[in-house]
Automatic annotation (TrEMBL), chain A:
The keyword Zinc does not apply. Keywords: FAD, Flavoprotein. This is FAD-binding molybdopterin dehydrogenase. One of its GO terms (molecular function) is FAD binding. It comes from the Bacteria. InterPro entries: CO_DH_flav_C, CO_DH_flav_C_dom_sf, Diverse_Substr_Oxidored, FAD-bd_PCMH, FAD-bd_PCMH-like_sf, FAD-bd_PCMH_sub1, FAD-bd_PCMH_sub2, Mopterin_DH_FAD-bd. Residues 1-221 form the FAD-binding PCMH-type domain. Coiled coil: none annotated. It comes from Xaviernesmea rhizosphaerae. The lineage of its organism: Bacteria, Pseudomonadati, Pseudomonadota, Alphaproteobacteria, Hyphomicrobiales. PROSITE patterns: FAD_PCMH. Transmembrane segments: none annotated.
TrEMBL record, chain B:
Keywords: 2Fe-2S, Iron, Iron-sulfur, Metal-binding, Oxidoreductase. CDD domains: fer2 (cd00207). This is (2Fe-2S)-binding protein. It comes from the Bacteria. Residues 11-87 form the 2Fe-2S ferredoxin-type domain. InterPro entries: 2Fe-2S-bd, 2Fe-2S-bd_dom_sf, 2Fe-2S_ferredoxin-like_sf, 2Fe-2S_ferredoxin-type, 2Fe2S_fd_BS, Aldehyde_Oxdr_Iron-Sulfur, Beta-grasp_dom_sf. Pfam families: Fer2, Fer2_2. The keyword RNA-binding does not apply. Transmembrane segments: none annotated. One of its GO terms (molecular function) is metal ion binding. The lineage of its organism: Bacteria, Pseudomonadati, Pseudomonadota, Alphaproteobacteria, Hyphomicrobiales. It comes from Xaviernesmea rhizosphaerae.
Length: 337, 168
């Protein structure tokens, strides 16, 4: 690990001004991703700003919704009674990710900002536009089992690795950030971005901005949801394809359908137009077919991940069936209904 | 103007490890794992992958299991840390240690301190009831000898003992 200066931030203002003043500064919270990347010299911050002392560890529930502080750990969030009551989909997605030890350390803010697990991003002997802008992409034409099938570019085919963010995308969360120009809200679907020509940017944070928390409005479906994750091992592995589904069903008819995919793109993937094909109809194979056809119309494999297009179809089909039936996938249950 | 290179400044850190207070000056890039093993010679905690993938370095920080390889020591100032050395001794074993012995829940033993600390954390968390839940919630600890069946037996045994004790 390269040497760095260390600052224990005493306030959000101090953290933000340190970030803004030092271009090579990084915030550290749980450290589960950043310390790993620093060991590989993928990240080499000149200044590490420790935000663990900040008052961002609370989950606040009110009439208007739920606010999750950036430093709430993945475990505290996953087992919080209010989250389980109002947003069981989020709790389930969290428990699908990482291991108990990692969830005990990893924070909500860090989960949003974690980097891709693309092998080439991690391997400093290879070219990677995300790690070193303009150097090229050795993933393209390389080993592509875990790479994107949607929204990739000629510069980058990496995927976003989070499970939590897939659920947040389905739940239309809002990310609260603070920076040198004050506070602002970023809708989750605008928070992460597609790689385009600038894959070094994972998200739409401006320089010096940090995440304060995540807001969720109202309540999601208590029954008609699921987080279904398929991966190379039965637990403790990143998704090849995952789906977060939240359905509002009244008198047997779908009134609202929100479906986000993980493991397939540089950001959690949602298609609001495709979702409209599920609305106003009784859940059925026909509606699902139409939805899948629209959602995956732009899907393109890279060779090693061509199977993901078929896998995504099947994950969506199963997940929609689970959500419609009110039988969400339990994360310790390895059989898939 | 290029910024000055990072200093070699150490940071004062107080850790309470296995019930004993340690006032230390640590380089900020020292992981909790390296501090335990290299500085304090508490070599019961093992370095496996050093990247949070194997769980051999699992310790309890303020009663919660984490991967010590992915935590910098400076981030844990003031914390209570329990390692395998703090759980029990050969004469007075922790119930989880005894269960691992009784169930032959190891072969080479390298992953065992991490498995035991993780299992103690699992019991304290209180989210595992079934065998399937135990297996899922022990998934952060790899055992390349493949002693998983007996590890799950040991954890299940301690959970059952605890439930029985609570019922009495």
């Amino acid at each position: 690990m390269k040497r760095f200066d260390y600052l224990k931030a005493g306030s959000v203002a101090e953290a933000v001004s340190a970030l803004a003043a030092h271009p090579k500064a990084r915030l550290i919270a749980g450290g589960t991703n950043l310390v790993d990347l620093m060991k590989y010299d993928v990240e080499a911050p000149g200044l590490l700003v420790d935000i663990n002392g900040l008052d961002l560890k609370r989950i606040e529930e009110s009439e208007n919704g739920t606010r999750i502080g950036a430093l709430v750990t993945n475990s505290d969030l996953a087992y919080h009674p209010g989250i389980n009551r109002r947003f069981p989909l989020l709790a389930s997605a969290l428990l699908a990710g990482a291991s108990p030890q990692l969830r005990n350390a990893a924070t909500a803010g860090g989960n949003l900002n974690q980097r891709t697990r693309c092998y080439y991003f991690y391997d400093t002997a290879t070219r990677c536009n995300k790690r070193q802008p303009g150097s090229g992409c050795d993933a393209i034409g390389g080993v592509t089992r875990i790479h994107a099938i949607l929204g990739a570019s000629d510069s980058c085919i990496a995927t976003h690795p989070s499970d939590m963010c897939v659920a947040l995308a389905a739940l239309d969360a809002v990310v609260e950030v603070e920076g040198p120009n004050g506070r602002r809200d970023i809708p989750i679907l605008d928070y992460h971005r597609l790689p385009g020509e600038t894959p070094e940017r994972d998200n739409t944070l401006s320089p010096g901005e940090m995440v304060l928390g995540i807001r969720l409005e109202g309540e999601a479906s208590p029954r008609h949801h699921t987080y279904l994750k398929l991966r190379d091992r039965l637990s403790y592995a990143f998704a090849l394809v995952s789906a977060a589904v939240d359905l509002k069903i009244e008198d047997g008819v779908v009134r609202r359908a929100r479906v986000a995919l993980g493991g397939v793109a540089h950001k959690p993937w949602r298609d609001l137009e495709a979702e409209s094909l599920l609305v106003g109809r009784v859940p059925s194979a026909d509606a699902t077919d139409a939805f899948i056809a629209r959602l995956l119309s732009g899907a393109k494999g890279q060779g090693g991940n061509d199977f993901k297009i078929t896998l995504a179809e099947r994950v969506i089909r199963r997940a929609l069936r689970q959500a419609a039936a009110g039988t969400p996938q339990l994360q310790h249950e390895k059989a898939i209904a | 103007m290029p910024s000055a290179p990072p200093s070699l400044q150490t940071v004062p850190v107080t850790l309470h490890i296995n019930g004993k207070r340690h006032d230390l000056d640590v380089a900020p890039w020292t992981t909790l794992l390296d501090l335990l093993r290299e500085e304090l010679k508490l070599t019961g905690t093992k370095k496996g992958c050093d990247h949070g993938q194997c769980g051999a370095c699992t310790v309890l920080v303020d009663g919660v299991r984490i991967n010590s390889c992915l935590s910098l020591a400076v981030m844990r100032n003031g914390a209570e840390i329990t390692t395998i050395e703090g759980l029990g001794t050969p004469e007075r074993m922790h119930p989880m240690q005894r269960a691992f012995v009784e169930h032959d829940a190891l072969q080479c033993g390298y992953c065992t301190p991490g498995q035991i600390c993780s299992a103690v954390g699992l019991v304290a968390e209180g989210h595992a009831e079934s065998r399937a839940e135990i297996r899922e919630l022990m998934s952060g600890n790899l055992c390349r000898c493949g002693a998983y069946t007996n590890i799950a037996d040991a954890v299940e045994d301690v959970l059952n003992q605890q439930q029985k004790a609570a019922a009495e």
